[in-house]
Structures are given as C-alpha cells and as structure tokens.
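The protein record quoted for completeness.
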Amino acid sequence: MDQSLEELRVTALAQIAGVGDEASLEAVRVQYLGRAGKISAASEAMKSLPKEDKPRIGKLLNEVRGAVSGALDAAKAALLAKADQAAFAGVDGSLPGTGLPQGSLHPLTQLQERAIQIFRRMGFALADGPDIETEFHCFDALNTPADHPARNEQDTFYFGDGRLLRTHTSSVQVRTMEKVAPPVRIIAPGAAYRRDEIDATHLAQFTQMEGLYVDENVSVADLKGTLEFFFRELLGKDAQFRFRPHFFPFTEPSYEVDIKTSALGSADRWLEIAGCGMVDPAVFEAINTRRGDRAFDPEKVTGFAFGFGLDRLAMILSRVPDIRYFTDNDQRFLAQF
C-alpha cells in the first residue's frame, strides 16, 4: 500500500499542476478528496491492514492528503491572481481617479452642534428624553391648564392610549428634575411636533433647543446674561437684544427675546428669536409631588428656563426664505453648507 499511496501523490500533484481553470480544479479536488475520492477510499482500506502496519500507513496517508490539499489551495490562489491580473490588464494605474462628491453635516445639525458647544462652555450638560410623552411631562408638570389650546387635538398629536408626540422639549427638563436634585443645568435639543399647517415658516416636526438652570439664588440677571452671551457668541459681539414681557404658564416672569436684525445684515428691525423666564413655583411643586420630597422647594431654589427653534434660527443665519428647504433633501440646496 506504501507504493500505491506514493503513486497517488505523484499522479494527483501532476494533475493539479496541469489544471487551467477553476472548474477543472474543483473536479480534481472531488476526484481525490471528495467523499468517494481516491484518498477517501485509501482511508477506508486502512481497516483491513494488519495492526502493526496501521501507524506507518496512516502517517503516510495523512502526508499525501496534506500534500494534495496544499497543492489545491496553491493552485486556486494562482488561478485567482491570474484572473485579477487579466481583469486589470487594460487599466492605466497612472491615470488620476474619478473624484467623488464629499458630503457634509446638515445645516441644522451644524447649528445644533455649534449651540451645544457654546452652552457647554457655560457649564450646561446635554439631556435627552423620549419623543412620545405623557400629558404629565408635556403639560401638567408645566402648569398648563386643562383648557389650554395646546392640549387640544387640533394642536397636538395624540395616540389612542392618551400619550402624545411632545410639543416641546420642556418635557426633558421635567424628566431631569424627577431624577436629579439641584443644582441642575441642562440643555435639551431635539424634535418637537405640532399640528401646524405646513408652509414657508412652519413644519409639523421641527427642532428645538431648550435649557434649564435651577440652584439657590438664580436670578433674572443670570437668565439675561446667559442668553446674551449665547446669542452674541452665535451671532456676533455687536448683536443687540431686548427682553420683552410675555406670558408662559410655566415661567413667571416670562419674556420674549428679540434681536436687532441689523446684526444679521438685514434692515434695522426687531425680530423675535426665543422665549424664556423664571421657573414658576407651581412647576417646582409638581416636581416635588412626583418625587415625593422637597428637593425643589421654591422657598430655597429658583431657576430659569428658555427655548428657541433651531430651524427658525438657521433660516435667519442662512437667509433661507422657506423652512421646507431643510427637509426637501435637495442636494443643490444642501451643497451650499
């Protein structure tokens, strides 16, 4: 059997060396290493050998199997290399490649990241929360009465189980205060949803940036200084602002923030860009009830909150006349950024 195995090795290696394509190589593999192949048959014949011959013949059989298997692998690699070489035979490697257009971040993402960077420098942490909210987190905790127009189905997207798509990211502020005791200093950028008629200045989904700061002795001066610093960093050192009294159910006193449009290179007029105010004590009491403690005792802590639309701010900064451009995915528009 020693001689037949040696002859098998020589014959197999000669056949493999003469193969010119992958199909023929596979046929040789099956002929020798397949279930009914010659090497498999030799392995079956081992059963009939005398006991003293089995170790020697078994070692030789393994050597033959290894040699044939290695030759098959080497031949397959050579055939693949030859095919690759043929595929690139007509390619001039010295020619310059074809350039591909390079993308960039969406203008709203760019603005959001810039805003986050500025607030981080003032010590604000980033907070997040679910888009699908409860009425408590979106309205009740924010001192919004049951008959408030925002709670009407004409203005808010409700689900059948009573939950809703958040109408602002103030719900993130509520969830943060439920979990964390003062001091709290956070910003909450994210999507908000309202049943607005879609036009040049309104979308059913838009992006908000809201902030909250709660601690001892927080004042209107802190609120004013924070927002003025932020908008001057974003819009320029010469930007002019005014704080105009307003009403929000969750802040008292409340203000609208206006900017002189001359800072944006437009005609000199006032433009509303944000809402803000000192957190209403009723909000703190709702949070205390929810927490089951007095961590946000309005006799001990005060705070301010603010919010503005990133879409509207992006329109102002980029002089985009229609908010729908941000969602149309028109590369001719997005390539400008």
Q: What stands out?
A: The chain has eleven helices and nine strands.
